[in-house]
Amino acid sequence: MTNHWIDIKNSDCILIMGSNAAENHPISFKWVTKAKEKGAKLIHIDPRFTRTSAKADIYAPIRSGTDIAFLGGLIKYILDHKLYFKEYVVNYTNASFIVNKKFGFKDGVFTGFDPKTHKYDKSYWKFELDKNGNPKKDPSLSHKRCVFQLLKKYYQRYTLEKVAEATGMPKDAILKIYKTYAATGKPDKSGTIMYAMGWTQHTVGVQNIRAMAIIQLLLGNIGVAGGGVNALRGESNVQGSTDHCLLYHILPGYLKTPKASQPTLKDYNKKYTPVAHDPKSANWWQNYPKYSASLIKSMYMEDDPNKAYKWLPKLDDGQNESFLVIFDEMLRGKYKGFFAWGQNPAVGLANSNKAREALSKLDWMVVVNIFDNETASFWKGPGVDPYQVKTEVFFLPCAVSVEKEGSITNSGRWMQWRYRAAKPLGDSRPDGDIICDLFKRIKQLYQNEGGVYPDPVVKLSSEKWVNEKGEYDPHKVAKIINGYFLKDVKVKGKTFKAGTLVPSFAYLQADGSTCSGNWLYCGSYTEKGNMAARRDKTQSKEQAKIGLFPKWSWCWPVNRRILYNRASVDLRGKPYAPQKPVIIWNGSKWIGDVPDGGWKPGTKYAFIMRKYGHGQIFGPGRADGPFPEYYEPLESPVKQHPFSKQLHNPLALTFKSKLEKLSFNNPKYPIVCTTYRVTEHWQTGVMTRWQPWLLETEPQLFVEMNPELAKEKGIKNGELVIVENERGRLKAVAIVTSRLRPFKIMGKIVHQVGLPWHYGWVHPKNGGDAANLLTPSVGDPNTGIPETKAFMVNVRKI
């Protein structure tokens, strides 16, 4: 989230799309309700009419996978009716930047596309630079190759009629939503977007979010109270785990994973440290060498970071190790072992039959969890002969959240400390203790017996993670993440002794004199104490206007609650919305939130994390294009769409094996299907499917369908049916409901059904199996996230 939960109450218009927040993120919906009480409009767009829809001022149905068609139409509407916030667009976005002459777009494909490699040469999308190496600009926004004019030309195809054809949404509903949301493009108004997996789990997932970011930049809704692009995280600590490198291509603090082609720390830093020539560009990533050296020192405290860099794991150039890829390689026998730690991929991963087959190719697997699950017991699952499975499975019972101490970071980037409420039961142990004990034994083996490459293991400063009893110490780890001075140094005119906690990432150094396990969290645990443990509601009168509560917990970075907040004021420091100011320049200093850089007004560009200092309407860094283009899901009910000749994302992540079976325009599988959550169950159901009172409310897998489809298929409410496609088949209870409705797509009627994805065969008996048995293992080219929200099935009565 660029903003945070409480800030939702400051919005004048809330668009919830790709989410059923009222049921699945109820804490967020408290603040939606607060906004509505003050007159805000709530818009909900979803294939189903849900509890969120019931609270909405405007609800509109949409066929799964067609979000960019709708959002592209909204961009066109804003531009055609001149509803953008021009001062904001000129000063704070790259709308005025001029793109080089090689850029173009035809028939759904951008220039620079190589049909053999299915990759783009991004040099075709670069900006024209002046003699100083800065992008050429036209503040009048009239140059034919400036981003603004290219955007207008690009989305002219996205007419109201074509949007309706693709999405199945009625034209009057589309127009009403466009008018309502575009009204937030005024200086004193703000609109926010709340989204979840309904947007991300597509082969165009990243571009869905990019499209909304463009809308928010055009309307001046980034950096302001009640604005932002706000992801609703599905678990309590998804934000924290991502910050600390849950994904293969990043290190903690969103540093890049080193490549084999970067053999030295100097090579690595040079590759990822941007150079800006405009004095008004803060270019905050110029500090990259300080953050990378401090990260390495947090791991190898006794060694020079230039030496220790070589011990970091490195990817080959072009190597993809996202989850879908890992399981494809596992299926091919590349891996001997696998740790399934706090996860259940036999249920949660797309194309579950493929995932389960891949698990059978291992020599060993360690499952760390609180209950038995489909991953731990895949070898005795439906249709599996245990004698044909070579994988040896070890199950380690771990403590639940209330049995361990540590921090969690919520969707709004608030790091909050929680304490242990009870001791772990039986032989279960906290994850930290399991990790420390496991690593201690591995380290001893390397020390005693040697190995092919022992140094990365034996030199790791793991002794810093534990207390005097050898037990995992969350406070010690939190302090390492914050960072220490490792030598007596003088920085910014201040003297610090070795062992002193670093007060802020502004004091981190590139010479090995500081450590920090995550530069973004520097300042979270200082000599003043554990900032995440604070529970002080004190706030200034300016902060009280928008509900900042800066002394309650801690927020990265540097306790800033709203990112890019310099864009909430004009070039003199005056808030665009004085009734809900984020920051204010009082003539000598900023007050309100922690400013996104403390410079005087107008001296630095607002978007300090970008090389050129501006919000990116034109985003030349994405794998599949600088503007979001509408592509159909890889499984689709239509043979063409209204916007171009390129039906699917040409860069979508796909695989080749006997288990990759796509149902494209197959008459055997004419029904669109999507997956979603219910309030009573959580993720793959490992925690909730063992609770009798939750099973009483949601006992088994069901499939929702509209009455017209049910009549066509001869299915009655409550009957058992088969949902199937080329990848698998499921038994489910039919719920016949008008919450779903048929769509008219490109002149033909298309039905959509929905499945919750929490169930599996282990427990309860006859509860059903994974909805992901039906989803395809195809993914977004930027992240690898699977397309589980739009695929094709058939439904038939048993």
Number of helices: 23
Low-confidence parts lasting 5 or more residues at pLDDT below 50? none
The biggest sheet, with number of strands, parallel, antiparallel or mixed sense and barrel status, is:
6 strands, mixed
Radius of gyration based on Cα positions: 26 Å
CATH architecture of the domain at 323-462: 3-Layer(aba) Sandwich
| Strand content bin | 5-15%
Structural shape: globular
**Distance from first to last alpha carbon:** 45 Å
Q: Tally of extended strands?
A: 31
- Main sheet: strand order: 25-27-26-31-24-30
CATH class of the domain at 323-462 equals: Alpha Beta
SS class: alpha/beta
- Global mean pLDDT: 96
- What name does the CATH topology of the domain at 323-462 carry? Rossmann fold
Organism: Desulfonauticus submarinus
Cofactor: W-bis(molybdopterin guanine dinucleotide); [4Fe-4S] cluster
GO molecular function, one term: electron transfer activity
Domain Molybdopterin dinucleotide-binding: 672-791
Plain-language structure description:
There is one protein chain. This protein is of the alpha/beta class. Among the domains are: 323-462, Rossmann fold, CATH 3.40.50.740; 671-797, Barwin-like endoglucanases. 24% of the residues lie in helices and 15% in strands. The strands form 11 sheets. Strands 25-27-26-31-24-30 form a 6-stranded mixed beta sheet. Helix 4 packs antiparallel against helix 7 and helix 15 packs across helix 17 (352-359). The radius of gyration is 26 Å and the shape is globular. The model has no long low-confidence stretch (mean pLDDT 96).
